[in-house]
Structures are given as structure tokens and as C-alpha cells.
């Protein structure tokens, strides 16, 4: 049930299109949605009964705001912009890049063909996506042999090796007519569109000729090329009678979970399939529309010629925004493809449901246990800190992030401490906390729901002091306490550093244990890296004539003291190091290595 404050705001909502932003008690944006009628949509969250993820969202809403747009199309565009900016917890979010390789023909006077994951608006030709880099590389190698363009770096006054191998048209020593390139590019485009009959016929004829002329190595090479077409290019079953590059989307929804299938149809074949599972807040149709818009808003994504979607989605708006036809087929093979995608989506969801439910109980349930024990509102994101040093040297801090009980390694951070030069837990904590959250404030990124400090009350109170008195932030800080066996014991929280005991057999206790072990592991690993690097540097710095530039050269080339010691004086001299200095390095490091070996045998 909505609070009196929210009830008042609900009465002021306009019956217009736009976007709405749901906020939690900490004013963090936790969900962004769009609506043709803001009044009806936003009121539905508070005036209807919900379950699953929607119920959890509604329970956390403390406030909302709306942005009115002129048209429904504008609300689509605004929604995607807001999702990318705020990364709300309850929205479907996609990675910024596709990660798919493409084959590219460059837009140059002497064009090249290459593999790229970086799609640019440079008027080059892009083909793909390919299922993996290996498939793209095999296709590229085939094209370079059969339909060569330019493989050299350009004019050099003499033929390159690739020209002699028949894999370059000769820009290295002559001017290749533009028409020659254009004709070759048309052949490549035809081949990559699935027209393989012509080239198979040509290769078969060339293979027979080579065999008759007893050029058996050439005949074998042509045979392998024919085999490549059969097992790689043609191994995918033809599923369409036309060769239009198209993407197809369909879904299946059950128990608040949305299963999505994306088919990439290229060369009349199903080249790649992408499957996604999401617990959702809005209707399946609204979430699907948002998914499609984000899907094509990612970096390095090449639009197809056509998109196929199921009925009920806003095809016209999607088509206008993307600038390509978006259709819902009613009959024939395209309709059959949509049905196949939906069936696959259903099978994936049914297969994974039990595992998903078990995982949800272990992770989301564990978070709920912790927040309940601490008397805090529901939370999702924990950031945990730990420090590491050896006798006050090479001080570092490290931070790990857990979202709903799962480690989010892409958000981990490392800190080489700048203001602390001795073992001071409070000062180390203050610097790490200050650097982390002043940056989040500056960049307008969302704050975590809780901060965990490994080490107890000293670190916990140092963190609270910086947050409250310097940054004016009200983020709950919890200390993780260990027992005499250095194992997780309990939590510290509150104004009086109260001990909060969790059931050692509970999922919440197990989660705290995992967080404590993970942040400790991450800090120790980072410290070892820093300490090893400093040890190498300091041993080299002790040698007369070795400055920072020489030291960096040596470490970059050889990687370790032992490898530098094993190198010859000539090897060192070839790096530009004077002969006397090279001899001194060799003698000094061999002594160090011999001493180290002698001590290891003591």
C-alpha cells in the first residue's frame, strides 16, 4: 500500500506519454519505465497485487518522478538513455559491446579484408556476426586465398610474399584498377550472402586441371578449399528461401521470468543464436521492446536488413527508431521460424527453472537474512574493503562487490595507498573510502546499499567518519569480525558497535564468510603483485648506471631477475645498454641469484 506522500503524488500524475523513475529510501533510481499514459501505468504499481520481482520492487519504492514526452517514440528513446545512465537494479541491462566478430572490407583505394570487433561508421562493408573468432578466421583465410584483395602495407616497389602466393592483387608494386577491386568485392559479398555454387564449380574445375597437369599439391589445396565450403559455410541448414540478413526475436514468459531467443539469420542460415533469461517487473511485451532497443544500442552492432518480432510489440516505433523494417509474419517459413524461437525459449526456461529457484533462495534469500538481522531495508549491493602490507611497506587496499549474493568482478577495485606510509588501519581505511565514494559522487554513480569492512571496529568507525563528516553520505557500514581461528564470527553494526550474531548454518552467514574470504584473497593477490614489482625494481636500482629507463627496458624484455641474470652480456647490450653497465648488471645479479639459491638450500 502506498504511503500518504506517494498517494498525493499519484493524484498529480498526467495522462500523457513519458518515462517514470522509481527510487528507494536512499533516493537511488531502482527502475526506469515508459508509458503511453503515465497516470495509469504508475498507479498500477500501487493499486494492483503483484508477485515475484515486481512485488519486491514495489516494496522498495519510496519515491518516484516522471518525465513527460510528446510521443511514445520519444519515451522509447528516453527510457534507453535513462537505463544506460543510471543502470537501475530492476531493469534488464545489456553489456555495452556485442563481443561478436565481423569480417570487414575496408573503404580504401586499395581495400583489405580483415576481422574486427570494432564497428565504425567508415563506409566499410561489414559481414556477420560470426559464431566465434575461429569461424570468422577460417572464412577470412578462405576468402584471402580465393578472392584476394590487398594483404601488404601498400606500395613498396616490389611484389610482396602474398602476391607470389596469390593472396594479394599487387598494390605493393603496381596500381590495381579500381574496377578489379570492385569486381572482387562483389564476388566476396555474393559468397558471404550464401551463393556458393559458382565458386564450388570454379574450384572443382581448377582442381581437375591441376590434377591433369600433375600439380598435386595445388590440387590438394583446392580440394581442402572445397571441403571448407561443405563443412563450414554450408554445414548450417538452410532455413530460408531468401538471403536477406535478418534478426528474429521471440520469448516465453512464466512465473515472472522472461526467456528470450535471438536468431541471427545470415546467408539463409541460422548463423548464431543468443539466449537470455531475466526476472522482470513490467509486462513481457514492454520488457521485450526495451530489450530490443538496448540490443541495437550497443557498441559494435551491425543492423540487419530486417527484424522479425512476435505480435503485441510496438513494431512501428521500433522500426522508426532503428530505421529498418520490423515485421510480424503471419504465415509461411518466417512464421515457422518465430514459432521455433518461442519453443526454444520455453525449453530453456523450463530446463533452468529449478536451478534458478535454488540459486534465488541461496543469494537473494541470504541478502534478506543479513538486512533483517541488521534491521535495514532490503538491499542488493554490498561493497567490502580490506588492506594488506608487509611490516608497513607496499600498503594497498582492495574492494570487492557482491550483488544479490554473487560476486561482480567487473566492479572490483584496487588502491595503492598514497597518504599512508606505515601500518595504520584507520588511515588506510579513510583513504580508500574517501577515494572510492568521492569518485562515485563526482561521476554521479549509484551508491551501494551496505559497506562491509574486514577487521572490526577500527576500520568500521574510520569508514563511518569519512562518509558522515566529509562526504555527507548515509551508507550503513558493517564490520566483519573473525574469531581466534581467523574464521568469520559475527558482524558489528550500529552507533554502539553492537555484535550481530548470524546462525552459522544460515545462508546469510555463509554469504558473509564468502565476502570476507573474497576481499581478503583479492587484497593479498594485489599486494603480492605490487611487492614483487617493487622488489625487482629495488634490486635493479641498486646497480650503478641503471636508471628508471634501463630498469623498465630490462623488466619489459626479460620479466624477472632470474631471466635477466641468465641473459648474455650481448643480449643486454642489444637493448642499448653500454657494455660496462651490461657487465656490471650481469655480475651483480648473478651474485644475487647465487645467494638466493644458497639460502634456499640452508
Outline the secondary-structure elements.
Layout: H1 4-11, E1 18-23, E2 29-35, H2 38-47, H3 52-60, E3 63-68, H4 72-86, E4 102-105, E5 113-116, E6 125-127, H5 133-146, H6 161-164, H7 178-192, H8 197-212, H9 216-233, E7 246-254, E8 257-266, E9 269-279, H10 284-296, E10 306-308, H11 315-322, E11 326-327, H12 332-374, E12 381-390, E13 393-403, E14 406-407, E15 413-416, H13 425-443, E16 450-454, H14 457-470, E17 477-482, E18 488-493, E19 498-500, H15 507-541, H16 548-558, H17 561-566, H18 569-573, H19 579-600
Parallel strand pairs: 7-10, 10-11, 12-16, 16-17
Antiparallel strand pairs: 1-2, 1-3, 4-5, 4-6, 7-8, 8-9, 12-13, 13-14, 13-15, 17-18, 18-19
Helix pairs in contact: 4-11, 5-9, 8-9, 12-15, 13-14, 15-16
Amino acid at each position: 500500500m502506498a504511503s500518504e506522500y506517494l498517494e498525493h503524488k499519484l493524484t498529480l500524475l498526467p495522462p500523457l506519454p513519458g518515462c517514470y523513475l522509481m527510487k528507494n529510501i536512499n533516493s537511488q533510481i531502482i527502475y526506469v519505465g515508459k508509458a503511453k499514459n503515465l497516470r495509469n501505468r504508475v498507479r498500477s504499481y500501487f493499486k494492483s497485487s503483484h508477485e515475484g520481482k515486481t512485488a519486491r520492487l514495489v516494496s522498495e519504492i519510496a519515491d518516484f518522478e516522471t518525465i513527460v514526452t510528446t510521443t511514445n517514440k520519444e519515451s522509447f528513446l528516453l527510457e534507453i538513455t535513462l537505463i544506460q545512465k543510471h543502470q537501475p537494479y530492476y531493469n534488464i541491462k545489456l553489456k555495452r559491446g556485442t563481443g561478436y566478430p565481423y569480417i570487414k572490407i575496408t573503404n580504401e583505394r586499395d581495400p583489405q579484408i580483415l576481422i574486427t570487433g570494432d564497428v565504425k561508421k567508415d563506409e566499410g562493408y561489414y559481414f556477420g556476426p560470426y559464431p566465434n573468432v575461429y569461424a570468422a578466421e577460417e572464412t577470412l583465410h578462405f576468402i584471402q586465398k580465393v578472392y584476394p584483395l590487398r594483404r601488404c602495407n601498400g606500395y613498396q616497389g616490389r611484389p610482396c610474399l602474398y602476391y607470389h602466393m596469390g593472396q594479394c592483387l599487387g598494390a605493393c608494386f603496381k596500381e590495381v584498377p579500381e574496377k578489379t577491386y570492385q569486381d572482387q568485392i562483389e564476388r566476396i559479398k555474393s559468397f558471404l550472402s550464401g551463393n556458393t555454387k559458382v565458386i564450388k564449380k570454379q574450384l572443382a574445375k581448377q582442381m581437375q586441371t591441376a590434377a591433369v597437369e600433375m600439380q598435386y599439391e595445388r590440387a590438394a589445396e583446392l580440394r581442402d578449399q572445397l571441403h571448407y565450403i561443405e563443412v563450414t559455410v554450408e554445414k548450417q541448414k538452410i532455413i530460408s528461401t531468401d538471403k536477406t540478413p535478418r534478426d528474429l526475436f521471440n520469448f516465453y514468459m512464466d512465473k515472472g521470468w522472461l526467456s528470450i531467443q535471438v536468431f541471427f539469420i545470415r546467408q539463409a542460415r541460422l548463423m548464431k543464436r543468443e539466449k537470455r533469461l531475466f526476472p522482470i517487473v513490467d509486462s513481457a511485451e514492454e520488457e521485450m521492446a526495451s530489450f530490443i532497443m538496448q540490443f541495437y544500442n550497443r557498441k559494435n552492432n551491425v543492423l540487419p536488413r530486417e527484424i522479425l518480432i512476435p505480435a503485441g510489440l510496438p513494431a512501428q516505433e521500433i522500426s522508426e527508431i532503428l530505421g529498418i523494417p520490423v515485421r510480424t509474419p503471419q504465415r509461411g517459413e518466417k512464421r515457422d521460424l518465430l514459432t521455433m524461437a518461442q519453443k526454444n525459449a520455453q525449453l530453456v526456461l523450463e530446463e533452468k527453472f529449478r536451478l534458478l529457484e535454488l540459486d534465488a533462495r541461496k543469494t537473494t534469500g541470504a541478502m534478506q537474512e543479513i538486512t533483517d538481522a541488521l534491521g535495514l531495508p532490503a538491499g542488493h549491493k554490498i561493497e567490502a574493503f580490506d588492506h594488506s602490507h608487509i611490516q608497513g611497506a607496499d600498503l594497498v587496499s582492495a574492494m570487492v562487490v557482491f550483488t544479490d549474493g554473487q560476486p561482480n568482478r567487473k566492479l572490483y577495485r584496487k588502491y595503492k595507498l598514497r597518504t599512508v606510509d606505515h601500518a595504520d588501519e584507520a588511515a588506510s581505511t579513510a583513504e580508500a573510502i574517501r577515494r572510492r565514494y568521492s569518485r562515485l559522487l563526482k561521476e554521479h554513480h549509484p551508491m551501494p546499499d551496505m559497506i562491509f569492512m574486514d577487521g572490526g571496529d577500527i576500520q568500521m568507525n574510520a569508514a563511518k567518519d569519512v562518509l558522515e563528516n566529509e562526504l555527507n553520505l548515509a551508507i550503513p557500514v558493517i564490520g566483519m569480525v573473525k574469531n581466534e581461528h581467523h574464521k568469520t564470527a559475527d558482524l558489528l553494526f550500529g552507533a554502539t558497535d553492537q555484535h550481530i550474531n548470524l546462525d552459522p548454518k544460515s545462508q546469510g552467514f555463509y554469504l558473509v564468510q564468502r565476502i570476507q574470504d573474497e576481499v581478503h584473497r583479492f587484497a593479498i593477490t594485489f599486494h603480492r603483485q605490487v611487492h614483487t614489482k617493487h622488489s625487482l625494481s629495488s634490486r635493479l636500482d641498486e646497480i650503478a648506471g641503471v636508471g628508471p629507463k634501463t630498469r623498465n627496458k630490462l623488466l619489459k624484455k626479460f620479466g624477472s631477475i632470474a631471466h635477466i641474470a641468465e641473459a648474455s652480456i650481448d643480449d643486454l647490450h642489444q637493448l642499448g645498454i653500454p657494455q660496462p653497465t651490461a657487465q656490471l648488471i650481469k655480475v651483480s645479479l648473478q651474485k644475487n641469484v647465487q645467494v638466493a639459491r644458497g639460502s634456499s638450500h640452508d
